[in-house]
User: Fold these one by one.
Assistant:
Number 1:
Amino acid sequence: MPNHLAQETSPYLQQHADNPVDWYAWHPDTLRLAREQDKPILLSIGYSACHWCHVMAHESFEDAEVAAVMNEHFINIKVDREERPDLDQIYQTAHHMLTQRNGGWPLTMFLSPDGTPFFGGTYFPKQARYNLPAFPDLLKRVAQVYAKNRAELAEQGQQLIAALAETLPRADSSGVSLNDTPLALAVKQHKEHYDSVHGGLGSAPKFLHPAELDLLLRRSHASGDQQALHIVHFTLQQMAHGGLYDQLGGGFCRYSVDERWDIPHFEKMLYDNGLLLGLYCDAWQNSGDPLFARVIEQSAAWALREMQSPEGGYYSSLDADSEHEEGKFYVWQRDEIRALLSADEYALTAAYYGLDNPANFEHHAWNLRVSASLAEIAQPMDISTEQASALLGSAQKQLFAAREQRVRPGRDEKILGAWNGLMITGMARAARVFDRPDWLHSAQRAMDFVRNTLWRDGTLLATYKDGKAHLNAYLDDHAFLLNALLELLQAEFRSIDLAFAVQLGDALLARFEDKQNGGFFFTSHDHEVLIQRNKIGPDNATPAGNGIAAQALLRLAELTGKTEYADAAERCLKLYFPALQQAAAYHSSLCTALAEYLQPASVLVLRGTTGDTSAWQNALRARYLPDVMTIVLADDVADLPDVLAKPQGEKATAWLCHGAQCLPPITDLDELLKQLS
């Protein structure tokens, strides 16, 4: 019989609906049940694309004997961390405090009936191994401790709640004067963590760090720092050549288990790829590297092909596993490739992807990565680079077609507001930079879906699946979607997008801002009361909501002339400024916002007929202008804010404003380019 998860919208929860575990979703009624039965709560948090979540499910949650122990001693709650990031953030922090170790997924926490955690870990095996206890034995020991040590656990819980409260940033009553010292500190700290051999920040496991690389690229542009520029370009090149990147189908996996970017955990997340689309666009504008353009083309094609729903919104993720094996969809046997290709195609492909080297994955398989350049391969084959490129293209098409016949990884088809915001931002920027109406249409369809489905009577909802939108949206949903709207407005101005941006900006201030201390809470003022109401300043796999909110509000103020948005961003920056002075590298998105506060973005309004403005737009596309917002207005746009309300003339005209100072109207393209440089 299905348990209590059968009617949930989350694919991750539905995966556990037929477990013998008597799972519940997180709900006030579930917490009340724990109080009534005086049982501790076993809280398990994961997500559908998580490999080790699947392992623990197969080993323990599908096992009747383990389930019997869980059901006897605990109220068992399963949470999708993507639908409930509020819970995930709180209990990951609590796990770190209790264990002094980093968390992860699956997260396994044991709570008192009021939600206060008293013990936890991540993955536990059914039988003892990896220096971890057997999960059934652990369950019995935890139940005994809870039964016999209530007073000690209650005291520990009070101390933990107090410690969680101490993690919130404190307003400086003496006043804060914002300056640029954290910007240089962030660059310095990132340089110290740079892997000069393989690219990237830090060592294995190696993550993508889009917010950090974005800051380095911006600071290199502002200051001429060539080392910072090299870090970004080299890292993006190494990532694109590595096995982290899907060499046949486009798109990046979540992280690499090694320092060389060879072997990823194979799940593909929407948020990573949205962030990287925009970052590779910026890097292409900055460098003209054709590798970056190819990554953008392939990754955008992947998003349209595999991640956009018929309704318009983007799906959440692709699983790491297929047929119960991690990476099986993506990896190859050498003889399998040889059988698919001609002799010349195989000779080139083997050299290009390193098939002549030892296998780099389990079961003597290869995860494809670029091992040599086409120029290096073409010379001993006595062919031109163009011929080598044609052979590689032919081979890639055949390998991709063959791979499409395999059993595909599962796809998490819930549609999240925050992650859609990140992909819309990346897709809209790529559309603008590469003049791709199909990519722009994709981004606009996704935003129209959000507006029509997740925006209800002035309130934003967090998630949608199977016709049901629900859950209070979080700070990230509002901030990332607001940022996406500002990017869409630069790709193609639509009045409906500007109106929605104002609505989201107003909602951010009304429902999330801490008016007394500054900054934005992760949950809204009317959210369910949890053991902590936190604020997130440091970046994680996604940029911090406070960082993106501050960036977007500053730009919304520039477009609308409404100073209340900039004032809220300033209060946010002042709250976090002490943290930026100490650990700027962990707050890269807030550093980016600080840079824009100190040097506000310019607004460039371009007006004229489509034929008149096309040459101007083409000239701007290839230029990296991170501190300029460009709005192109058509003939029939009306009811504009004063900042944008420029007259239609007989020829293309540009208005360039730096804050309150505007240059005279510019009717010569060369003059505009001179002013922008």
Note: The mean pLDDT is 96.
Number 2:
Amino acid sequence: MEEKRGLTIKDLLIRLILIIIFIFLLIWLFPMPDLKPLNNQIFADNIDRMKDVAKSYYTLERLPKNINESKKMTLREMIDNKLILPLTDSNGKYCSEDDSYVEITKLENEYIIKVNLSCSDKQDYIKEHYGCYDICSDTCKLLETTSKSGYASDITRKKTTLKPGKVTTKKTGKIYEYQFVKNECSEKFDKYVCDSGYYLVGSGNDYECIKNGSKVESYPAEEKTVEVSSTDTKEADVVVDSSTEFKDASCRYDYLTSTIDAGYKKTIYNAEKTVTTQKVTADKVTTYDVKGAEKTTVKASYTYVQNYDIINADKYATGYKWTYVSTVIDRSPSLGYVNDDEKLVLIHQWQELVCESSQACTSTVTYYKYYKYRKQATGYEYSCAAYPNYELYGTDKCRKATTKTKQCPDSSYKDTGSGCEKVTYSCSKYGSEYKSDGKGSCTKTITSYKCPSGTKETSDPKYCNKEGVITYTCPPGTNKINETQCAKYDYYCPDNTSTKEYKLNGTKCTVKTKVKVCSCDKYPGSVQTSDKLHCAITNSSTRYSCSKYPGYTQDGNKCTKTVVTKKTILSCEKHKGTTLDGKNCIKTVNTSDSKKANKSYKTVCETKYKWSTKTSIEGWTYTGKKRLVN
């Protein structure tokens, strides 16, 4: 009977090769579908969603009012206001909520809406033009335009179409006049002004600009030989003298002082009622007048900045010294130590009296005073030797040049890909009271005041009077305990005894207890001996000596010697009123310059209205109002 054999390595390799060939045939016969159209469709759907939200949000009252004025809303603001849900791209990632936005701009006869979408797979934008027919229906527009004049029903019946600047009507046999408006501006004299550095003087129509200046006159200085005294200074030697002296300790009766709460007696009084007029602060009301700013686009070229890789340099100490850190007081005489970084040194010891009872203070305790020092470096140096291609930068950094970065002159410029560009806004045409917000608007802040309810106005608009205010006042020496009552507290202490004395101090009693005490208080800095009868006083004095510097005179902790030498100097004695500057003697002489002042003009604008039977007038804008004249 034939035995059955298992799979060999050769059989396994053949089967593996056949499987790989089969997979390649499947890929060749059935290639992956092109997903690009699907990705583009997802991006287009997201833009349409943002556009639809913007059209529904920007109703008539939210649209820009002035020509070239824009309003912008980011995707984040849409999401925060619950106008739209977060948008995802073809990769399943959320689109940028700050770089994606909708911006609407008012033109002369229409609006432009720009929708910008930034996602991980694509970034692009669309623009769409629309007019009144995109914002509301014709009937809605007609009713809004004519409701104020009282002709709404008549216009609706005749199906009159009104557009800014032009009127068209069907013939009805009636004659109407239409109202038009326009702004006329002219330059009018404002004031006289001067160039920078000049100040204005004069009156009436005669003004001049004056500028005061100065000029410098210079003369060669004269050489002069003088004797110059200099002082050579050296540090004097420090000499310390010390000795110990013993004094009798003083034993006396003294007092231990403590504090206890005083007793008291409480008396109730009625508070005094007073009706007054109280001055209160008026409510501040702030309103704003907003106008469109003048927009200017500024272009600039790129600048290139050298980048560096910066690391910390290695720090090496060049010397050390011991520096005082703190004082330690303890009862142990063996705390002193010295190591590589710090040391504790015994400086002084003394004894203090311990009172074991209220009647006698006879035992003493010895205390030891230590100074703690810490080793500190007196100087450092830094090195970059351990880092190849790095050089020392500043004091403690190492740097190595890397790449160069292309950038705009400053953060106010935006990189357009081919250069730098920034937009600036100006409010100068409206006067100094209007401030730019940097986004296209000029705002004037108007402040007024309003009195709260129940108060009356005063001569000062910032304050109001509130009448009939009831207050309660306590008599002197009493404290208020509720709205209408006051209390007075009379404090007292216990009677004195043969060993205790009491003294009232506010709400406390100071208690003085008589005890017997032996001490060295009259000898400050002394140490009481073990027999309690003597005080040891260590006297030390420091003096300075110049004995090792012959010819030098002691001056405090210095040794000085005067040396006289001859020296040639420059002098300005021949040129009165001058001062020495290098090798010249100079002085400043005042000068003056004047010229005619310049006239400054300002722009004054006036709004004019006109009624006409014509449906359009060149240079005039139709207001939407009309009246029947026949």
Note: Residues 133-171 have pLDDT under 50 and may be disordered.
